[in-house]
Amino acid sequence: MTSGGLLLITAMVAAWFLSSYWMRKQLLGYKAEVRRLKETSNGMEGKLAASQHLDSILSAINEAVLRLDDKGKVISANQRAKELFAIHEHDPSASLLSYYRDSDWHERFNAALAALPEQSPPLPDMHISGYVLTPRLARLSDGNALLLCMDISEQHRLDTQRRTFLSNLMHDLKTPLTSLLGYARSMEKFGDDAEFRKEAAQVIADEAKHVNHLLDALLTLDQIEFAKRNDEVCEPELVLKQACDMLTPQCKEKQLQLTYNNLCEDGLLLTISDTDLDRVVTNLLSNAVNYSPDKGIISLNVSLSEAGLCIVVEDQGVGIPEKQLNRVTERFYRVDKARSRNKQGHGLGLAIVKELLENNGGELKLSNLKPHGLRAEIVLPLVAETDT
Fold it and tell me: pLDDT confidence of 339, banded at 50, 70, 90?
């Protein structure tokens, strides 16, 4: 073999070895890249799995929960949050501002989000879709944040009702007490005037009676609130007749006609005590007398229904505005001047009726009559034959 041929073979072998080296080096590089990509993929899959697991846990929570990124965009929400904030499945990730538009609240929210996790400043309540929510913000380990919105609507309603109750109570006590004090002081200066003494005595008696009625009503409500349902029963016929007889003098004074019509057979028993039934019926009849025009007609009708005994009181008064029918059974709630002209009214009568009925398994339904008048229907369960 010539030296030229040997040189050619040597060059080819060297080229093959060099090519093999580079191919092996590239292969090792590819393997390292594949390994890195695989590790990255596994990490992403792990994070995705953890995220899905967290969303699965949040879906079992009854309160509204939203998962947010560090910019405040909604990543996911459980079913309750979707319902309250109107979040749809096809909605892209959007800022919380898109679902709850309150610039002042979001200013506080952004400050709280930026302060995490070192601090967790309180957030104002959220009012949305007729609900009141108390939000709590917390940082997650992956840098995201969790917004838990606890529904305090019922607590908020009760707190508002309690504040209104106390405000009205103070007003209802202050007005007659101021009148009593004023006339008492005036008696010192004008006590020699017989006509003034007569007027002052009447006002003092009326205002004292109003305060006494108010305190009686408050005591009744307190007793109802803490009373346990008992096993007392009553025969309604006697109680209803007595209630009508008690109001006969007031009816004669206003020339009102009170009719009583009982379509039920004798011997029926109700799951309520005589005292409670008397309070319920007397309150309804008294309202009818107070708000009926002179020479009007008041009817008390009794019949059976599938739910139990149905007692209906109807008058020819001004009725109640439709928008306020569902509120007149709230404590101290008054409608308007037309139905508040009676100075003895304290806004507790229908509240007593409603709470007494509910405490005894009954219910109250109010509706207006045409062309005018109010219909108050109460339904009470009958005593089952097996109970007797």
Answer: very low
Between 194-226 and 349-359, two packed helices, what is the crossing angle to 10 degrees? 20
**Cis amide leading into 371 (omega within 30):** yes
Q: Which two tokens stand for residue 201?
A: 């005595």
- Res 287 pLDDT > 70: yes
Query: Are the CB atoms for 299 and 285 separated by under 8 Å?
Result: no
pLDDT at 27 over 60: no
> For the chain, what is the radius of gyration of the CA atoms?
39
Q: State both tokens at 103.
A: 């610039």
So what's the pLDDT on residue 385?
Answer: 59
Residues 228-267: b if buried by 16+ CB within 10 A, e if exposed:
eeeeeebebeebbeebbeebeeebeeeebebeeebeeeee
Structure tokens at 381: 């369960």
* Domains in the chain, CATH or no CATH each: 61-151 (3.30.450.20), 155-226 (1.10.287.130), 236-387 (3.30.565.10)
Phi-psi region of 213 (alpha: psi -120 to 50; beta: other; left: phi over 0): alpha
Task: Retrieve residue 60's tokens.
Answer: 């079992």
d(CA 78, CA 223): 43
Please count the CA atoms within 13 angstroms of the CA of 124 that sit on its side-chain side: 14
